Amino acid sequence: MKRKPLVGILMGSDSDLPVMEKAAAVLDEMGVPFEIDISSAHRLPEKTAEYAKSARGRGIEVIIAGAGMAAHLAGVIASHTTLPVIGVPLASGALNGVDALYATVQMPPGIPVATVAVDGGKNAAYLACSILSIKFPEIGDMLEAQREETRMQLLEKSKKLQAKVREGQ
């Protein structure tokens, strides 16, 4: 039996899918159920507003929204819900994501959007997991295990590098 989604992933267009799939992969790895869809703030404003307004009632607890260029998707969603919204500015257009970063991070008081790096789909998912870990300790346990695994891999790489350096001296 499939559990109800806890995270909603939205993107402005299908061209955003490669970055947003990275968020989906992290959520899969952490065992966090999610849903994913396309919903443009400018081309599908009614769908976007309805998604945001209905999310809490459908069991969604965090929304990840990725968009490029004008990147109003996360802000529009945040204006229609009090759920945590994580914005992922996407590299596109003449400014290669800087415009999307500014549009996502510069929200007016009272309508916050947590913003990750340009093309930061993975970190958006990790942040969503951190938020969810407040209510679901097992997600926090998964995060801690993932961080420990990363630490161990880095220590192993460091040992190999140091051995290689010693051999070359």
Automatic annotation (TrEMBL):
Keyword Protein biosynthesis belongs to the record: no
Name under which the protein is recorded: N5-carboxyaminoimidazole ribonucleotide mutase
GO MF annotation terms: 5-(carboxyamino)imidazole ribonucleotide mutase activity; lyase activity
Catalysis: reaction(s): 5-carboxyamino-1-(5-phospho-D-ribosyl)imidazole + H(+) = 5-amino-1-(5-phospho-D-ribosyl)imidazole-4-carboxylate
EC number: 5.4.99.18
Pathway(s) annotated for this protein in UniProt: Purine metabolism; IMP biosynthesis via de novo pathway; 5-amino-1-(5-phospho-D-ribosyl)imidazole-4-carboxylate from 5-amino-1-(5-phospho-D-ribosyl)imidazole (N5-CAIR route): step 2/2
GO biological process, one term: 'de novo' IMP biosynthetic process
Organism: Candidatus Desulfobia pelagia
UniProt cross-references to HAMAP family, sorted A to Z: PurE_classI
Residues annotated as binding substrate: S13, D16, R43
Lineage: Bacteria, Pseudomonadati, Thermodesulfobacteriota, Desulfobulbia, Desulfobulbales
EC top class, as a word: isomerase
Function: Catalyzes the conversion of N5-carboxyaminoimidazole ribonucleotide (N5-CAIR) to 4-carboxy-5-aminoimidazole ribonucleotide (CAIR).
Domain PurE: 5-154
Keywords: Isomerase, Lyase, Purine biosynthesis
UniProt xrefs under NCBIfam families: purE
Domain of life, per lineage: Bacteria
Gene that produces this protein: purE
SMART domains: AIRC
Family: Belongs to the AIR carboxylase family. Class I subfamily.
